[in-house]
Amino acid sequence: MAVLAEPRLQIPVDPGYLRLKRLVDVTVTLALLPLLLAVMGVIAVLIRLDSSGPVFFRQKRLGLNGKEFTLLKFRSMYANSDDYLHREAIRRYMNGDRLSSSQQAANPYKLNDDPRITRIGRLLRRTSLDELPQFFNVLHGEMSLVGPRPPLPYEVEQYSERDWLRLAGKPGLTGYWQVYGRSKVDFKTMVEMDIAYLQRQSIWEDLRLIALTPLVMLSGRGGA
């Protein structure tokens, strides 16, 4: 498993909390698994009917301490799409540039008028249902239910030393930025929100964010 770099700054964390957090991750995921599999089965059929290509999309992301892992999503784009538009959008977001109103989605990591997105893909992205396969990343231990959004390698290449603190904890399916931030904050504010979460993380805060996440999904404000 590749490591892009070792962060020079760390955030202290209670080992007991990490064990309990892992227990919550596994318990909640296994409890939801029957429902998840049923919903995912329907989504898989819709994807196959909508466009040719694989059901799942695999992408390299960076997790705890910069360790590379393969993130799973439902495919929401046409097969073999180029990633230039997304790379450019990420660069502009990290530099503080504003996207045009037609491009700006509720989630700054996604584009409204992206021509690569399929019909069913737009629905999946708007409701964050394209993220459901990441529960398998949680079971595998690469992600947690709650944590910072997992960054892309070409995003982390532009990180400052402080930005690296986002990688001091496991990435999550949901988190403080995913619930309260998104298009309302710029990149630096997102970093500070993630660092603030990691500095005060607790099981009660995790459970609160988990409980709020379905409301965010139903509002259609986009996925991480």
From TrEMBL:
<dbReference type="Pfam" id="PF02397">
    <property type="entry name" value="Bac_transf"/>
</dbReference>
<protein>
    <submittedName>
        <fullName>Multidrug MFS transporter</fullName>
    </submittedName>
</protein>
<keyword id="KW-1133">Transmembrane helix</keyword>
<dbReference type="GO" id="GO:0016780">
    <property type="term" value="F:phosphotransferase activity, for other substituted phosphate groups"/>
</dbReference>
<dbReference type="InterPro" id="IPR003362">
    <property type="entry name" value="Bact_transf"/>
</dbReference>
<keyword id="KW-0472">Membrane</keyword>
<feature type="domain" description="Bacterial sugar transferase">
    <location>
        <begin position="21"/>
        <end position="218"/>
    </location>
</feature>
<feature type="transmembrane region" description="Helical">
    <location>
        <begin position="26"/>
        <end position="49"/>
    </location>
</feature>
<keyword id="KW-0812">Transmembrane</keyword>
<comment type="similarity">
    <text>Belongs to the bacterial sugar transferase family.</text>
</comment>
